Amino acid sequence: MGEGSGYKEYVAGMLAGVSIVVVGHPFDTVKLQKHNTEGNGMKYKSSLHCTSRILQTEGVKGLYRGATSSFLGMAFESSLAFGIYSQMKQFLQGGLNSEKPRPQAIVPSAAFAGAIISFILCPSELIKCRMQVQGTDSSLTSIRYSSPVDCALKTVQTEGLTGMFRGGGATLLRESIGNAVFFSTYEYVRYHMHQPMGHISSNLSHFIDVGVGIMSGGLGGIMCWCVVLPLDVAKTITQTSMDRDSTRNPFQILQAIYKRSGFKGCYTGLGPTILRAFPANAAAIVTWEMAVKLLGIKRE
């Protein structure tokens, strides 16, 4: 990144976050709805069957249940993630542009950005998960929420302010590790894909950049979720459980899941998550890089 870009990196990151929700939220809804209704004795033949059921009963709106808090949370999260990562990476590189990715700058920058955004993301995801779980086919909880604000108020009333940060430890670990994996994969794939294309006509550069953005962002998303999905499973269980006395330690939760369902249980929802990860993160990187160009931020 070039010097003096300042707030522009955060604006570009915010736009990337919006694109993630537009593309990825329906996948989240299907994954959570399918998992929780099956836990209550109902069976969907497939994720496609679950999607069609939601569309039949609630329409397209049903796929975006809980999306309001997602748009707000992801916009802030992505803005901080990309902004903090970009500026900290530049600082660790001594303000110098580096031709090759430098893991000693990439990893700590990404992990630090992930740690910061986890404090914003945790309450947002708690609201999103609880709104999604109370779908028309789920009887997981007797508490009904009329809106995200109602969900937040009832959570605070019943569990106190700290209830909004239920699952915070798992979120912190997931975001720190996940961001380090995502940005490392993105930087290396982007670098190695651009290398052999250095002499291609500038008329094709826009299409090349979009293609590289799709692949680097998509693969970054897949690698990230392959590493941190068990932490996300533990986080979701923690946030949607109405039992105040249940453990919030993600490793104890995963240990219990492993004893009950084996390694497969720790990767519940892997298929839909991977299906979501590629297009959602590809959209984020393409949007991010287009915004970087439009805002005039210099890149190495």
Automatic annotation (TrEMBL):
GO terms for cellular component: mitochondrial inner membrane. Solcar repeats lie at residues 4-91, 101-192, 208-294. It is found in: Mitochondrion inner membrane. Its main location: mitochondrion. The keyword Endoplasmic reticulum does not apply. Pfam families: Mito_carr. The chain crosses the membrane at residues 63-85, 105-122. This is Mitochondrial arginine transporter BAC1. It comes from Dorcoceras hygrometricum. The lineage of its organism: Eukaryota, Viridiplantae, Streptophyta, Embryophyta, Tracheophyta.
